């Protein structure tokens, strides 16, 4: 294996073939909807019932979805490298779904949070949660009610795992972005940062990403087809 430290950045495009809507674009979750109404701390404080209902519906949809060939290929690569002790795969995902986990990937870092977690705004306790969050759902740590929200990174909130993300990008020898538009900072800068530290950079996308200049190779086409083929060839070397 030529590479020992492989970092994936995955976006909505990897989950779309599993039937999940992207957030942006025509027919996306934000299409004809103001994100400020459901994806800010102010929205949660002003109208928590509306925000909770939105994410409760989304949680149900996301937890019913199944991983596709792209998720499974990444998980296979992670397992093969771990079993052979030849390298490591880390997955930085912008997605709040759990499809990487369902594919049996273990090193998954949800930089935008996870739909399967909840957080208390009072004591900042975070816990695994696949049930609907209600106004009277208590925090298991401090027992407060009315303070429990999805563990989702709202607009203007910092990304999760910032320290680990920086570490992974500095040490990567192969950086692969899958299903990302390259429009949204700071994730749109990850490829450039990894490349500056010596990593080969690749993108698998339906169309050229906005930050295409940061990639050594851009592979166009459905990721559920192109990525498994690439990983198969990578493992055969």
Primary descriptors:
237 residues; alpha/beta; Rossmann fold; SIR2/SIRT2 'Small Domain'; 2 domains; six-stranded parallel β-sheet; three-stranded antiparallel β-sheet; 8 helices; 19% strand; elongated
Describe this structure as you would to a colleague.
- The protein is of the alpha/beta class.
- It has 2 domains: 1-20 and 67-112 and 159-237, 3-Layer(aba) Sandwich (Rossmann fold); 21-64 and 115-152, SIR2/SIRT2 'Small Domain'.
- The chain is 33% helix and 19% strand.
- The protein contains 8 helices and 9 strands.
- Strands 3-2-1-7-8-9 form a 6-stranded parallel β-sheet, sandwiched between helices. Strands 5-4-6 form a 3-stranded antiparallel β-sheet.
- The model has no long low-confidence stretch (mean pLDDT 93).
Present the secondary structure layout.
Blueprint: E1 5-10, H1 12-15, H2 41-46, H3 48-64, H4 69-84, E2 88-93, H5 99-102, E3 108-110, E4 113-120, E5 126-128, E6 148-152, H6 162-171, E7 174-178, H7 190-196, E8 200-205, E9 217-220, H8 223-236
Parallel strand pairs: 1-2, 1-7, 2-3, 7-8, 8-9
Antiparallel strand pairs: 4-5, 4-6
